[in-house]
């Protein structure tokens, strides 16, 4: 079973591991979005105002306009939820992965893990260049290079209907 390959060219274990990675990352996105959706006090304002680095002015400007901030909050919440569902279900997987990479990159650029910056928001550890956002970006690049939605997911059914 380990060395048998499916139509994708992946072994059974490769497929299992890649799909598990996709679903776990999807769960992380979905849960983060749901927590924000059901917390009436949540806003990205504090996070944006805590930004440091080259792009901090951009993040500050987003937080300074209440209308823009409300739009950013909605995009963040629903982006997380939709990306999470897409990854879990294998639906629009490529779009979900690319969107996730973009969103995580925005988080990473907002709070670059460099010792020259001090943040108000607590971190879970001590980072130097590599943090959980960068690791999750790398994992999503793997999912982009080794797509699984057409093997196990709704994308497979859509692909069958198209063909």
Write the layout of secondary structure elements.
Elements: H1 12-37, H2 45-49, H3 56-64, H4 66-89, H5 93-110, H6 132-145, H7 154-162
Helix pairs in contact: 1-4, 1-6, 4-5, 5-6
Which labels suit this protein?
163 residues; mainly alpha; 7 helices; 64% helix; globular
Would you kindly provide a written description of the structure presented here, covering whatever features stand out?
By secondary structure, the protein is mainly alpha-helical. It has one domain (23-162). It is 64% helix and 0% strand. It contains seven helices and no strands. The chain has helices at residues 12-37, 45-49, 56-64, 66-89, 93-110, 132-145, 154-162. Helix 1 (12-37) runs antiparallel to helix 4, helix 1 (12-37) crosses helix 6 (132-145) and helix 5 runs antiparallel to helix 6 (132-145). The chain is globular. The two termini are 29 Å apart. The mean pLDDT is 91.
């Amino acid at each position: 079973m380990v060395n048998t390959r499916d139509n994708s060219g992946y072994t059974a274990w490769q497929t299992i591991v890649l799909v598990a990675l996709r679903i776990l990352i999807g769960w992380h996105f979905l849960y983060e979005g749901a927590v924000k959706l059901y917390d009436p006090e949540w806003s990205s304002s504090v996070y944006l105002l805590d930004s440091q680095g080259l792009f901090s002015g951009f993040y500050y400007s987003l937080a300074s306009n209440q209308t823009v901030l409300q739009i950013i909050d909605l995009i963040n919440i629903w982006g997380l939820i939709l990306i999470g569902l897409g990854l879990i279900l294998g639906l629009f997987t490529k779009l979900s992965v690319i969107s996730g990479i973009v969103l995580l990159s925005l988080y990473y650029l907002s709070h670059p893990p460099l010792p020259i910056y001090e943040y108000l928001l607590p971190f879970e550890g001590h980072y130097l260049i590599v943090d959980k956002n960068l690791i999750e970006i790398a994992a999503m690049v793997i999912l982009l290079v080794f797509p699984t939605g057409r093997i196990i997911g709704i994308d497979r059914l859509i692909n069958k209907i198209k063909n």
